[in-house]
TrEMBL record:
Positions of the Carboxymuconolactone decarboxylase-like domain: 12-93
PANTHER family attached to this UniProt entry: 4-CARBOXYMUCONOLACTONE DECARBOXYLASE FAMILY PROTEIN (AFU_ORTHOLOGUE AFUA_6G11590), CYTOPLASMIC PROTEIN
Source organism, top-level taxon: Bacteria
GO MF, one example: peroxiredoxin activity
Stated name of the protein: Carboxymuconolactone decarboxylase family protein
Any Pfam family matching the protein: CMD
Taxonomic lineage: Bacteria, Pseudomonadati, Bacteroidota, Cytophagia, Cytophagales
InterPro entries: AhpD-like, AhpD_core, CMD-like
Length: 146
């Protein structure tokens, strides 16, 4: 495996801009569980092992259960997630996979049943932020530390 750059070393100003967006997302009034689920599910879809490792550890610290974490990849088939969480997960998947299809109206409508316009804006930023981190992690071959 070829050594690749660390963005924070190669371009500290760009890295600081990413940290600023991440900091904004962290202080939003979105439920912490929702923030954790967004980070993990997007990271699963983007195959970012560094972020999956990091955010599952954080979710456990925030009180998330092992059972829900183990079943997050199959959330469609499990009874472990609330209606609001399911709406957010569907929206997260649609935004993360937006290159294959625009966000369907029914997915948007479901999330709008549970979140205010301001929260939807924050949700879009949260999903965009983790997707950007995933792309940084995947293309620079970041992996979890042993």
């Amino acid at each position: 495996m070829q050594k690749r750059i660390l963005v924070k070393e190669a371009n500290p100003a760009a890295y600081q801009a990413m940290l600023a967006l991440d900091s904004y997302v962290a202080q939003t009034n979105l439920d912490q569980t929702i923030k954790d689920l967004i980070k993990i599910r997007s990271s699963q879809l983007n195959r970012c092992s560094f972020c999956i490792d990091k955010h599952t550890k954080e979710a456990r610290q925030h009180g998330e259960t092992e059972r829900r974490l183990f079943n997050l990849a199959t959330w469609h088939e499990t009874p472990f997630f609330t209606d609001a969480e399911r709406a957010v997960l569907a929206f997260t998947e649609a935004v993360t996979l937006i290159a294959s299809q625009a966000v369907p109206d029914e997915v948007y409508a479901q999330v709008a049943l549970h979140l205010s316009d301001s929260q939807i804006a924050d949700l879009i930023l949260a999903i965009s932020c983790i997707n950007a981190w995933n792309r940084i992690g995947v293309c620079t071959l970041r992996t979890p530390a042993l």
